[in-house]
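>> received
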Amino acid sequence: MPSFTSQRLAWLKSGLFWRTFFLLGVLTMLSMAAWIGMISVVQRAPQAQQIAAQVISVVTITQAALTHSKPELRRELLFDLVSNEGIRIFPLEDDDLVEPPPDNWLMPDIEKSVKAKLGQETRFSARVNGIAGFWVSFKIDDDDYWMMLERERIRGLTGIQWLGWASLVSLFSLLGAALISSLINRPLARLTAAARAIAKGRQPDLLPERGPTEIIEANRSFNQMASDLRQVESDRAVILAGISHDLRTPLARMQLEVEMANLSDAAREGIQSDIGQMDAIIGQFLDYARPTETASFTPVDVSALLGECAREAMRLPDVKVSCDIAPQASVMGNATDLKRVLGNLIENARRYGRSADGALTEIDIACRVKGMHGARRVYIEVRDHGLGVPADQIDTLLKPFTRLDSARGQANGAGLGLAIVERVLLRHGAELHLRNRDGGGLAIQIVMAAA
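>> returned
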């Protein structure tokens, strides 16, 4: 069993939209990472110099203000520094609990610049006596002091801020990637849907001939192909209708002449059988070529159609029919074509599904409706009790003008019965499944959406 990761990779590779989205997303992320890295490297020196200059300026001005102010005014000056500038001055004691300075990528450059201006004895700390801040030492005469600045004044973008901005940019980038992927994939998805509609025997709407040159040319070529296919279908129907008329007229005359001719009973029956076989083959050609217009689809009571076909089959002396038909099973379709399909399936079972002694054909007809409302499906099954079909030849049954060796010579026909069934069902959007029945015989199942 494939792993979850392999299933996800297979799913990712299967869709153009997701593949394009993934590639654009990866490209965007890599570009953003490179951009952030470049900005960090380029910005490091100027940002460190800016912060160092700010610290030097504040320390120098504060030092000068305290040095030149009158002793009685220094308390008021210190209060103003705290309340207005966020600057606090504390005497530096030997027993102060001093923690190392902030550990970030700018601090070494800041220390170097500040010590170059204020002296190498300048100390830095992130916390003194449990009070967090940006601490810098300075001297007034022979006394040492701490000056605490608020961290926000000397801090650039934090890691959380970088992450926030990166997440926001990533979100917009992914939305843009999804939009671009959708715009790239939409014409191809439309073309795929139209091609699938043609494969199912439907006539799709013309594709819009707009957009990039390649899309215009592809849609124009597809529209031309669809138009040519419609014309070929129409011409074939006209040609076969003409052939039917031209062939059946002399066949009718031959039938009449045989009836009137002075022939033996055996000869007359043989000729009439040949004429009937030719007429049946012509009828199969017409059924195979006849188009089914989806505009003519109406709700069809499949239960009633199956019951009617079963009653017709029961009139034959060598056929035994068992029915298990759910009532009021309805589908959207053409009633005439669907009855022809069901009749072909029953006739196919009657011809090729005889018992081993060849005396009787047993046919089981079943119809069920399954699924919840909105996704209900109608399952129709026709089973015989014959010899069945070799497993490797089941798919051959649906090929037109093809008959299995075991069927040749058993009945008249051109090998179009199941091909006609598949063709009509394809135009109805139905599924056709063939399998060998447990216990012998062939089981043919039709699955259609319930009306």
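>> The longest strand covers residues 131-140.
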